[in-house]
Design goal:
Elements: H1 2-20, E1 50-52, E2 60-61, E3 76-77, E4 96-102, E5 105-112, H2 115-120, E6 125-127, E7 132-142, E8 144-146, E9 155-160, E10 166-172, E11 181-182, E12 187-194, H3 197-200, E13 209-212, E14 218-219
Parallel strand pairs: 5-7
Antiparallel strand pairs: 1-8, 2-14, 3-6, 4-5, 4-13, 7-12, 8-11, 9-10, 9-12
Length: about 220
Amino acid sequence: MLRPLLRILVMCAGAVVAGCGAAAPQAPEPAATPVPANVIAAPMISGGTDLVATPQPSAIRADASATVVIALPGLSGGGDREPATAIPGPTVTPNAIGSATINSYRLSLLIVADPATRGQGLMYFGSLADDSGMLFVFPGDSTLSFWMRNTAIPLSIAFLDANGRILNIADMQPFDDQTFHTSAGPARYALEVNQGWFAERGITAGDQVVIELPDDLVVQ
């Protein structure tokens, strides 16, 4: 009787160990992504991560004469490589709602104007309504660089100078955290829209963007 009993005890002990579950091997830390020349790593931004050589932050106010409040429809959460149950929703609360006009085409905008909101951007959003976008506003002019970590929406990004002139436009692919999309010169703004929105309307570098910001917007 001892041998069958010992066999039963060994099988039960094995079941307990299996039920506890061994910790999954930890994946090695990813290698650091090279930062483009003349760009200093700052908080990671959305529709991409923002790597920005920014001057010391100083609060500034938008032009008091530019006031607008426009509802921004069609933004919803989702999108990442993980199962749906593990996907957080959008974590950004925009600083303001605004609008912009480019060659008679009008955009409703989510405005992000401080390091925390710029650092999240459009991460974890599942969709972006047509004729809507996100405007990243910075307190000074610098070379900006974005990637697409945790960003599910195919996007086009326009980098704008302090006067709203488009410096360059780039298309960004979902979840691409290996490619940096960088402004062609010192930029004050970055404007993200659904991929192809600019091209479909013939909007190119050199075009003027008329940005309407709330008069109480503080940029940090």
